[in-house]
Amino acid sequence: MRILSGLQPTGRLHLGNYFGMMQPSLQLQYEGEAYYFIADYHSLTSIQDAKALRENVRNLAIDFLACGLDPEKAVFFRQSDMPEHTELAWILSTVTPMPMLENCHSYKDKVANGFTPNHGLFAYPVLMAADILIYDSDRVPVGKDQKQHLEVTRDIATKINLAYGEGTLKVPEALIQEDTAVVAGLDGRKMSKSYDNTIGLFEDEKVLLKKVKRIVTDATPVEAPKPTEDSSILKLYKLVATNEEYDALVEDFKKGGRGYGDYKKQLFQKIWDFFAEARERRAQIVAQPGYVDDVLQAGATKARVVARRTLDRVRHAVGLG
Ligand code: ADP
Ligand code: TRP
User: Fold this and answer.
1) Would you say residue 178 has pLDDT above 80?
2) Is the model's pLDDT at 25 over the cut of 80?
3) Which residue owns the Cα nearest ligand 1 atom 8?
4) For the chain, how big is the Rg over CA atoms in Å?
């Protein structure tokens, strides 16, 4: 089984990215051949600052490795070291109907929010399809918001095969990772950079506490039982605590007698402890100059073998070269 996923280097990682995409990816690296990459071509659609982009790429690579990506197990690389993806994207774009892209939520939402779209943003799902199809991928662990992009990927692969023959591209089968949770943010909406409601994985201790204190709660008095439905504190606690600890906190909510401030401190401590090991690994990685570049270079060399093979197969099938 080949597993593939990518993350855009658009800012520091938050708990939504971790539990929605990274944790499932990290588990899957031991179950098959994993290909994980930093989608820097994609993030050019929103970041036009070379220094910021380079810093984001570096931080994302360090964070991913600190969280447990094992470069001996998984092929870890930078998308822009693989121009083969963009060539395949062009070929795919020639069978992609415009309405299919016009229908994509990610694009429609940005336009609805007053964002003037560039062509890159419009064509974004085609490049994503190329990222996936160029490695003959079977499984793509991503959060639910990426589901439509994965359907587009299957459609495009099917259209290529109809036009140029079965087997030109592998249509990924069990593609969608249904069990990833949607992580709630500080204001109860989906945690997202765009809502400024995130909790970062590697926040400074004081900043983390401050953020957790910002979680929106209701006006239930200290002595009274607290509602357990739709509580952001409980939802986040569930992600970082054991089942027993979570059940105990739910009981505590039902009993009443403690204020939200108390619960927030408890949540803060659990989040802090949950990432203690990753924090330590992060510090070790930062202390080794050249390590991250070496890992990414070695990853690109391995990825190229597979990507080149698929691209040559497709070029031949469509009549190029
Ligand atoms: P953001 O919404 O902060 O811009 P991205 O769109 O860059 O996050 O998401 C990167 C990955 O993390 C995707 O696979 C996405 O599905 C996942 N992800 C992001 N936010 C969440 C969330 N709140 N819950 C679950 N998964 C998420
Ligand atoms: N679109 C994905 C996101 O925003 C990132 C991405 C780009 C990706 N190419 C991919 C994810 C290929 C999985 C597979 O999160």
Assistant:
1) no
2) yes
3) 192
4) 21
Query: What domains lie within the chain, and their CATH numbers?
Result: 2-182+289-318 (3.40.50.620), 203-274 (1.10.240.10)
Ligand 1 atom nearest residue 141's Cα: 14
| Main-chain phi, psi angles of 77, to 5 degrees | -150, 175
Ligand nearest to the CA of 144: 1
258: left (phi over 0), alpha (psi -120 to 50) or beta: beta
What is the DSSP code (8-state) at residue 208?
Answer: H
Cβ–ligand 2 contact at 146 (below 6 Å): yes
Task: List the one residue out of 140, 180, 139 whose CA is nearest residue 16.
Answer: 180
Could you tell me where the beta strands, DSSP code E, fall in the chain? 2-7, 33-38, 75-78
Please name the residues in contact with 321: beta carbons below 8 A apart, sequence gap of 6 or more: 315
Q: Whose CA is nearest to atom 9 of ligand 2?
A: 128
Tokens read off for 7: 């993350």
Q: Are 42 and 8 in contact (CB under 8 A)?
A: yes
- Lowest mean pLDDT, pick from 99-113, 137-151, 192-206, 295-309: 137-151
Instruction: Give tens-digit pLDDT for 93-136.
Output: 999 999 999 999 989 988 998 888 899 999 999 999 999 999 99
pTM above 0.85, yes or no: yes
What are phi and psi for residue 97, nearest 5 degrees?
-65, 140
**Nearest ligand to the C-alpha of residue 85?**
2
Determine which residue's CA is closest to atom 16 belonging to ligand 1.
143
Give ∠ CA 39-43-44 in degrees, rounded to 5.
120
| pLDDT tens by residue, 242-279 | 999 999 999 999 999 999 999 999 999 999 999 999 99
Lookup: tokens for 163: 């036009």
Positions marked active-site? 110, 190, 193
Determine which of 23-27, 74-78, 239-243, 267-271 has the lowest per-residue pLDDT on average.
23-27
CA 201 to chain centre: 13
